[in-house]
Amino acid sequence: MRESRYVEYKEDISNSFLKTVSAFANYQGGTIKFGIRDNGEVVGMRNPEQACLDIENKINDSIDPKVDFLLQVNEDTNVIILTVKEGLDKPYFYKSKAYKRNDTSTVHVESYELRRLILEGQNKTYESLPADNQDLKFTYLERSLMTHMGIQSLTDDILVTLGLYKKDVGFNRAAELLSDENSLVGIDVARFGESINIILDRETFAGISLLKQYDDAMTMYRKYYQYEEIKGALRETVQKIPEEAFREAIANALIHRVWDINAHIRIAMYDGSIEILSPGGLPGGMTKKEYLEGQISILRNPVIGNIFFKLHHIERFGTGVKRINNAYSNSTIKPVFDVFENSIQVVLPVIQKELPLSNDERRIYDSFMGNRELSSSEVATHTGFGKTKVVKLLKSLVDQGYVKIEGEGRGTKYTIT
Known about the structure:
The protein has a six-stranded mixed sheet, with helices on one face. The chain has a four-stranded mixed sheet with strand order 1-2-5-4. Strands 3-6-7-8 form a four-stranded antiparallel sheet. It is an alpha+beta fold. The chain contains 14 helices and 20 strands. About 30% of the residues are buried. A hairpin with a 3-residue loop joins strand 9 and strand 10 (about 170).
C-alpha cells in the first residue's frame, strides 16, 4: 500500500508528523503509520509502548485545540497506527499554522482557506455572514417567487422564512447574491470559433441576482445549441446539447461554488462541447466517487440551494450528476467530470448517436460503461481480445481522442473522454 491523501508513513518519530496531524484534524481525518519507510517497507518501532507515549505527549503539547485521535500497535510488526479524526473545533494549529494534505504531502493552508476553516469551526457558512450592503432590492427574486410559488409580494416575513434576513442582524450575503444589484462575481461566458484565439461572442453576468445570471446563461445556451426543425406540419426544437444537462450543470455551479474567491464561473462554448468551470473543489467530507454517484449531498450554500429548489431550477439535492448523465443515455459520447483541488469542471459534449469506429474499436469503447477506468488487462477480459490486440486498439482510440490514458506503468488506466 502506498502513501495517499489519507495515509502517511513515518520510519520513526520526528516533529514533522505533527503537521499531518493538523491537516487530518482540519480535513477529513487520516492515518499515520510509524515504523514504515516511504517506500512501504515495514521496519517496526523499537519499544512501541514508549513510542506511543511520546506521540501522545507531542500531540497534546503541540496541537491546538485538542485533537481526537487513537493509537494502536500491530503486535506482529510493531507498527504504530495513529488515527486522527476530523475535528469540530477547526482550525487546528501546529506552531500557529494550520495545515492540509496536498496529495501525499502536507502544506500549510492559505489565508482564504483559513477563513473557511474558522467559519466551519463556528458552524457558519460564507452565505450566512452579514451582507456588506444592507440597502438591497429584490425585484427579480420577487418576480420569480410570484411565478413559481404564487406569492403576492416579497414581504419581510418571507425573507426571514427563506433565510435571507434576520431582524437583529439584517440581510446576509445569500440575500446580497440574490439582490438586483451587488458588487460580487458572476458568470463569464465565451463562444469560441475554430480555436480559443477566435472569440465569436462574449458576455459577463455579474453584479446582478444569481437568478438572472442563471436565466441569462440559459439564454446563451439556447442561442447556440438549440434550433427549430420543421418536420411536415410540425416545428420541433432540436437540442445539440441536452438542455436538462446544461440547466443542472449551471445551477449546481451557482449553488456549490465558493464565494470567497474573486473568480467567475467560466463557461466556454465550442462547436462540439460546453465546458463549465466552477470555483471551489468538493466540500469537505465528500469524495470524488460520492460526488459522481450522488451518494451524499453536502450543500456549501444551503440558503441559495433551497431557493433554487423552491423555484424548480434543481429537482432534488445530490442528483445533478445523475441527471446530467441520464440526459446523455442515447449518446455515444458522455459528459466528463473533472474534480480539482480548487475547482470542478463539467464538459457537456454535443450529442452523437454513432462514433466512426470499426467493429473491434466499438467493442473496446463499449467495455468502459461511462466514466469507469479500466486497465488494458480488464479491457481484454471484457472483450475477449488478446492483450496485444487490446493495446493496439486502445492506442488507436487514444489517437482519435475517444479514450485517454491516466497513470503509467502497471498503474496505467484508460477512460473514455
